[in-house]
Design brief:
Two copies of one chain form a homodimer. Chain A has 323 residues and is α/β, with parallel strands linked by helices. Chain A is built from 13 helices and seven strands. In chain A, helix 1 crosses helix 3, helix 2 packs antiparallel against helix 6 and helix 10 packs across helix 11. The two termini of chain A are 39 Å apart.
């Protein structure tokens, strides 16, 4: 590890993050979100110290009680002496500019626990996208020495599915008795589930939902990885011990199977592609500002004087020095 | 319009699309989805013929009844003699590989109506992303001569919000009596709403929901564009005439205000950036295949021998001929 291109202050911030200092880490995350060049250099120095954390994705529809489940999991893992990081991805509010989910407040009781680091992310406004930002936050938490990082997402947008699919283990939370349309959405997220939790299982229809899910899983192609289905009533802490055990079992599966290595390569590849897209765009925009200007080109597209494909190709050719 | 670099068959396909032929248009959409180079050339030739269609976004949570609303709107606009295109964005199923929403079937009654062209899109698996694919489909429908294009999306993922925010007018559908968490999500999509429809307004709490939404809108900064709030019971066709009128009024606002031009520039800019990202990545991957190979680089990232930022920068420098 060399620090040639990292300023003195940055070197000490890298050391602070490695020592687990929350304030330094939070500032670095903010700078990374804004793609501050020095911050990226710091992340490069942190990278060799990552890879120790286990990343657990938890997703599900609004009202499925996944925040309650995350809350229970934090407590269990804290009781086991683990350092826990939480990345909570919320729809952003145009009014507050940030996370506003009411039941996130419940998690704040962990705020005074030094072994828990919670970072809320808005779904919009990240330079280079939510996925890039989230991966950076995970890397920083990982380098800080967190044993477990929980990524909690709301909704089933492509971006959020991408985020969750980079976790080591993905938990999808559903509730009994949903309408047809919601059932369809569940099918969409079955693709990324390693563990399915039917929460609020004291409601009517829980066994039916378990049966429906089992049937849907049976329809998958042969050789698809096994998915565990559990029932829970998270609000009463029922089923949480089973969930922790299922996560452990899946983690052991990953350690012993080619699947674990395949996922690590998938994660590396999607991160590389994400960054390449982001950096290429930044680069092109920087050059554009020096030339004709973005505004002029955008105006020509809006007026149908040039089509967007030709405009993008022309920019890329200039970027690559081909013209 | 020249056709130098378009093959003879492609020239006739361009002409077929301009003549409104559905089979040719559907094939072109499929080729564009796969980024077939010839198809992109065809789109370039279609681009000068676009800009005539009015794009209406309709979004909302699962179960809000937005498909029923879209169904009613199609009928109204057809009765008025307009040609209507519909882009339905669904969560994809790993089992069917496509759209599976049950109530999409209801829309199929329009399938025999030559004045309605419905295209379902999966939320995943588009080269260059959902947003790029959707914009291409809209451009083709526009060039075909559709007067109105309705883009219907499920959920509130960033990608879907991006898609809807490129519409001329965006309708957000909500239902009365939702929990706190869903209210919070509504706040997230208030940002993109020009018209809010409280559907299923025969349920308890409809007036309360209208009042809540009005209050949230009042909290926005001064100068924010006016948002119309309507009640509807779409299943009984109640409130649909009001919705059509609200869309007309918003459309007139756009024609007479700087807002319309600002949105056109926003659309052009986001499309240019989307394409630049996509083409830059394609370019980099092509070069990579000729060199060290993507697999080898991904492996080094997974093994923490190189960090993803350095790897992406290195690739980009090679791409730009700087190294």
């Amino acid at each position: 590890m060399t620090s040639d291109n990292v300023r003195a202050g940055a070197v000490s911030r890298v050391e602070d993050v490695l020592a687990g200092r929350v304030v330094s880490a939070a500032r670095l995350m903010r700078d990374l979100d804004d793609l501050v060049p020095g911050a990226v250099d710091e992340l490069k120095h942190l990278y060799p110290h990552t890879g120790g954390a286990f990343v657990l994705g938890v997703t599900g529809n609004p009202g499925s009680g996944k925040s309650t489940i995350v809350d229970c999991l934090i407590r269990r893992y804290r009781d086991a002496g683990l350092r826990v990081g939480v990345v909570a991805i919320d729809p952003s509010s145009p009014f507050t500019g940030g996370a506003i989910l009411g039941d996130r407040i419940r998690m704040q009781r962990h705020a005074t626990d030094e072994g828990v680091f919670i970072r809320s992310m808005a779904t919009r406004g990240h330079l280079g996208g939510l996925s890039r930002s989230t991966q950076d936050v995970i890397s920083v938490m990982d380098a800080m020495g967190h044993d477990l990082i929980i990524v909690e997402t709301v909704g089933v947008g492509q971006d959020e599915v991408d985020v969750v699919s980079t976790a080591h283990t993905s938990v999808v939370v559903v509730v009994p008795g949903l309408g047809d349309e919601i059932q369809a959405i569940k099918a969409g997220i079955l693709e990324i589930a390693d563990i399915l939790v039917v929460n609020k299982a004291d409601r009517a229809g829980a066994d039916r939902t378990v049966a429906d899910l089992s049937m849907m899983l049976d329809l998958r192609s042969e050789g698809a990885p096994a998915v565990r289905i559990l029932k829970a009533v998270a609000i009463n802490e029922e089923g949480i011990a089973d969930l922790v055990e299922a996560v452990d079992l899946h983690r052991q599966d990953l350690d012993h199977e080619a699947e674990g290595r395949r996922r690590a390569l998938d994660r590396a590849e999607s991160r590389l592609k994400d960054l390449l897209r982001t950096l290429a765009l930044e680069s092109a925009l920087t050059r554009l500002e020096a030339g004709e200007g973005l505004a002029a080109l955008v105006e020509r597209i809006a007026e149908r004087k040039i089509d967007p494909y030709s405009a993008a190709e022309q920019l890329l050719a200039e970027l690559m020095g081909d013209s």
